[in-house]
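Translate structure to sequence.
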């Protein structure tokens, strides 16, 4: 009887080991799938940052050229293999030049492309605010300014009479 119990215990251990092995294999497959999904997402994001060397004026993600499709797949394969986004991007810049970058680098003269629009927006906002403040002061400020400037009341009365005659 002890021998039968030993066989049952060994059978349970074997089943447990098989289940444990299957669980580990499934977990490894899930982790690999997650890595591949993350790499594909990174490749998709990178293709939205790069200009297509095959379709002038289009992002790599928007280019319908077969060569662009091959380049997108090559980028995804490299990222899935474990290369970093920065390494892939610098290699593409080396191959195709800085024109492949969708935005100018934030260095040297490239800073102007990032700063000038912000500065223009700031100057425009200040100018609009100044004009709005002037408009809110209203037309009531004008006669006081005109009176302070030396225009006499008789000249203003004559101007009012002439304007009434035009009506």
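Result:
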């Amino acid at each position: 009887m002890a021998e039968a119990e030993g066989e049952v215990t060994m059978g349970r251990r074997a089943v447990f080991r098989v289940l444990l092995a299957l669980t580990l294999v499934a977990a490894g497959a899930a982790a690999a799938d997650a890595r591949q999904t993350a790499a594909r997402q990174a490749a998709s994001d990178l293709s939205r940052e790069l200009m297509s060397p095959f379709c002038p004026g289009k992002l790599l993600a928007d280019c319908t050229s077969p060569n662009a499709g091959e380049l997108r797949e090559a980028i995804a394969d490299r990222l899935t293999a474990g290369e970093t986004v920065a390494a892939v991007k610098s290699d593409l810049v080396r191959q195709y030049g800085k024109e492949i970058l969708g935005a100018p680098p934030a260095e040297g003269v490239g800073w102007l492309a990032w700063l000038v629009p912000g500065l223009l927006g700031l100057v425009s906002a200040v100018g609009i605010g100044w004009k709005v403040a002037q408009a809110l002061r209203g037309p009531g400020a004008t006669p006081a300014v005109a009176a302070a400037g030396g225009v006499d009341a008789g000249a203003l009365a004559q101007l009012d009479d002439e304007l009434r005659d035009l009506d």
